[in-house]
Every structure is written in C-alpha cells, then in structure tokens.
Design goal:
By secondary structure, the chain is of the alpha/beta class. It has two domains: 13-98, Beta Barrel (Elongation Factor Tu (Ef-tu), domain 3); 106-233, 3-Layer(aba) Sandwich (Rossmann fold), CATH 3.40.50.80. Helices cover 19% and strands 30% of the residues. The chain starts with 12 loop residues before the first strand and ends in a 10-residue tail after the last strand. The strands form two sheets. A seven-stranded mixed β-sheet has the order 10-9-8-7-11-12-13, with helices on both faces. A six-stranded antiparallel β-sheet has the order 4-3-6-1-2-5. The chain has helices at residues 80-86, 122-135, 158-164, 189-194, 210-222, 256-259, and strands spanning 13-24, 27-34, 46-51, 55-60, 71-76, 93-100, 113-119, 143-149, 169-174, 184-185, 202-207, 230-233, 262-264.
C-alpha cells in the first residue's frame, strides 16, 4: 500500500506535521502523520515530501519500520523546498508520496555481521536500518556503525545514536574537533583501520556523499572485501520518484528511484559511486 492516490501516482496524500526537532546546524527532523494508514516499508525506502507552492523532494524514511502511526524524515536546508520545509510549524500540512524504491534486504542478512559506514546526512539513509537491526539484534552477528561528521555540532540524531549504541557497536569521528570532543578525529575511513572488522560473513552498507562512498569502497577493496558483499544507498539526482523524468538514471540504464536507491555495489558501474 502506497501513501498516494491509486488513480494518480503523482497526487500526494496530506500529512500533518506533529513534531519538529532541531537536530544539528541546518538540520531538522519532522514527524509526519498522513491521513489514512501508514504503510509498511523496508529500511532504505524513501518518500517524496512536498510543500504546497514550493515543490517536493525525496527523503529517506528515518523512523523505525516497526512504527505504524507516523514516519520521520530528517532534512538539511539546502534549497527552495528544503528551506520551505524548515519554515513549517507543528500543525502545518505537507504532501507525501511513497514509500518508493528498493530497500535493504535485511532478511537475507540474518546470521551475518553487518557493518554500516555513513557520513554527514548519509546517516538519515540508514537510520531506519539501524532501528531495524536494533529491534532484531539477535538475528545478526556483530553490528557496527561507523559515522563521520565535519564537526561535533554537525552530528544529527544524537538521541537515536545513544539508543542504538546500547546494542550496536558505534564509533563516531569528526574532521574538525572542538575543545570538548573526546572521540576519534579524521575521515570515517580511518575508523576502518583503527577498529577490528569481521573478516567472514560480513555485509557492508555505505551511505553518504559520493566522495565518501568512493573512498570507503576503495578502502574495503584494498582490505580484500568483495563488492557483492557491499551495499550502497544512492540518494541523489531523484526528482519524480517513480522513474518518469529520467533524472536519476545511472550509466547502465538503472534508475535510482525505481531500481534503488539501495544497490549491491556489483550491480552498478563503479563510475556511478562518485
């Protein structure tokens, strides 16, 4: 079941803003309660969120897939639509379509180790996955999160990180620390050297800026991990969300919005990682 009109897939369903949380500099999380039932979704899927009069943009669903009465999206203000979203107040209405796309094959990973490497707002693309792994922790081996941000002030979803770290090995790093930062310093790839990784039965998930995705991929290849054991979320270039506009087509003809945004890395050309 989709949050949209079955007769017109481009017609959004109204959703009420029931909570707004300031996460970090320029980032807010909105809790949205659509009219009607919230459909089931797979971690990694996305919704299109529109502000009337400004347009719409794609956002990964960042809340737990076990929650049935609302969804959350985390938004960095970078353009007309996202700035309009940041100006919303509790009680305002937006339009949403979805969930769309292919998510993470979490059931296929049961019994394996899962290592998630995220950078910047890429944390939002794996937040629902982290909630799923947290809730079903006993189904997996080691679960590790490596996350990198520019500064301590740029780390979002801090409350979630504290909860996840009670069941998931969580390591944070920043590029530019302040006087109070006690954690690791450096690019997120440095954590792959510092902390012992599982060698067998491991799945890697990578989500973040293109330059980070490519750097992590190159690092894992040097460490003799296989592309078929790596998954990436390519939340970029999407516009319509349903494969009609062609804006998100990869060089091999796949669409990020329809065939992804989650891909196993050996499914896509290496050039599309950066």
């Amino acid at each position: 079941m989709l949050i949209n009109n079955s007769s017109n897939p481009l017609l959004p369903v109204p959703a009420k803003v029931v909570l707004i949380k300031d996460e970090a500099r320029g980032i807010k999380t909105l809790r949205l309660k659509p009219k009607g039932k919230v459909p089931e979704f797979t971690p990694g899927q996305f919704v299109m969120v529109g502000v009337f009069g400004y347009g719409e943009a794609p956002f990964a669903i960042a809340s737990s897939p076990l929650i049935s009465d609302y969804i959350e999206v985390s938004v960095r203000a970078v353009g007309d639509v996202t700035n309009a979203i940041h100006r919303l107040s509790v009680g305002d209405w937006v339009g949403i379509r979805g969930p769309y796309g292919r998510g993470f094959p979490v059931r296929d990973w049961e019994g394996r180790n899962v290592v998630i490497v995220a950078g910047g707002t890429g944390l939002f693309g794996v937040s629902a996955l982290l909630w799923y792994l947290y809730e079903f922790r006993g189904r997996y081996g080691r679960v590790i999160l490596f996350y990198g941000a520019r500064t301590p002030q740029d780390i979002p979803r801090r409350d979630d990180l504290r909860v996840w770290s009670s069941r998931i090995e969580t390591y944070l790093t920043v590029d530019r620390p302040d006087g109070r930062w006690k954690g690791d310093v450096g690019l997120v790839t440095t954590l792959l050297d510092k902390y012992k990784l599982p060698r067998r039965g491991v799945i890697f998930v990578i989500c973040g800026p293109p330059i980070m995705i490519k750097a992590v991929y190159d690092k894992l290849i040097k460490l003799d991990y296989r592309p078929k054991d790596m998954y990436v979320s390519l939340e970029r270039r999407m516009q319509c969300g349903i494969g009609k506009c062609g804006a998100c087509m990869l060089s091999n003809g796949l669409y990020v919005c329809k065939d992804g945004p989650v891909f196993r890395i050996d499914e896509i050309p290496e050039a599309d990682l950066s």
